[in-house]
Structure formats: C-alpha cells, structure tokens
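The data are passed on as follows:
___
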Amino acid sequence: MSKKDVLIAKIMKQCEADGEPVTREEAEEMAEMELKANTGAIAKAEAVKTRKPRKSPEKDPEKVEIIKKLCDFLLTNGEEDATIVNEQREISFRGYSIQLIKHRVKKEDK
C-alpha cells in the first residue's frame, strides 16, 4: 500500500466517524491536497536548513583592550571577584556588571 492509499483510507475512516462519509474520489482529492501541503512545508523547512550560517562579528580589539584594562583596574583596587563575562562587552563583580557599548556614528542630514 502506498502512502497515498493509507492516507485515503484514513480520511475515509475519519470522515465516517465524524458522520460525514465521503466517496473514494473525494478522499483522493483530500489526500492529494494534504500531500501537496506537506511537501510544501517540507520544502520550506529544508530551505531554512540550507541557509548560510551567520558570520560571527569580528572582534573589536579596542573594546577587548578597554574591558581588560577595566577588569585589571578593579582587581588592583580591591575587587577580588571581578571577572570578564564577555571579552568585548561585560565585566561582573560583587553583584554588579559593567557593559561596554560602542555607539554608531550618526549620519549627517542631506
């Protein structure tokens, strides 16, 4: 038995249980529509899988240096638990955190 035949039998049985029996031809139409819908969804899902992976942004050496200097400063000034959470973004100590944000340059109005 093919996948389509199994689906037709399932549709006929389900419609009969619902109190609305259908003919084999009607069940075939429904099965074809369902199979087409499923193949469309599968194709879409496969297209999503084949997307190129995102490039991770390049490390900004200036941000890395600033975070390292801030952490070193905290460590030398009594904050023994100062740790770098993200080498380009965040330092954590004593229940606090410091985040470094680089702002974009605004474009001039034309």
In short: Residues 24-49 form the longest helix (26 residues). The first strand starts at residue 83 and ends at 86.
